[in-house]
Amino acid sequence: MKSRDKKLIVGGAIIALIIAALAPFLASQNPDGLESTAEKVMPNPETEPVIESPLPDYTIPGLGKEGEVLALVLGTIIVLIIAYGISAALKTGK
């Protein structure tokens, strides 16, 4: 891997982590996305999940905003590690 590529990957990871850390403070308290639409269309959109999420509703219960930041940063790191692992596996498969 070229030095330029490494710098690009590290820069992208840093930007992703900054966005993850700031997202709880920038997100709307009244979202109008999928969950809001489901509440309008279905009388009881909340159902029991098949598998319990380790980070339900993008937060760590009981920690407030810090829990949201921590959950998003952890999720971002996990996704980056998985993406790196998949790319490394595909690279060795050539």
Keywords:
94 residues; mainly alpha; 65% helix; 0% strand; elongated
Describe the protein:
This protein is mostly helical. It is built from three helices and no strands. The protein has helices at residues 3-26, 34-41, 64-92. Helix 1 (3-26) runs antiparallel to helix 3 (64-92). The longest helix has 29 residues, at 64-92. It is elongated, with a radius of gyration of 18 Å. The relative contact order is 0.11. The model has no long low-confidence stretch (mean pLDDT 85).
Q: How would the blueprint of this fold be written?
A:
Layout: H1 3-26, H2 34-41, H3 64-92
Helix pairs in contact: 1-3
Number of strands: 0
Low-confidence stretches: none
Proportion of residues in extended strands: under 5%
Global Rg: 18 Å
Number of separate helices: 3
Distance between the termini: 15 Å
User: Averaged pLDDT, please?
Assistant: 85
- Could you state the order of secondary-structure elements as H and E? HHH
Instruction: State the helicity in percent bands.
Output: 55-70%
Summarize it:
The protein is mainly alpha-helical and 94 residues long. Helix content is 65%, strand content 0%.
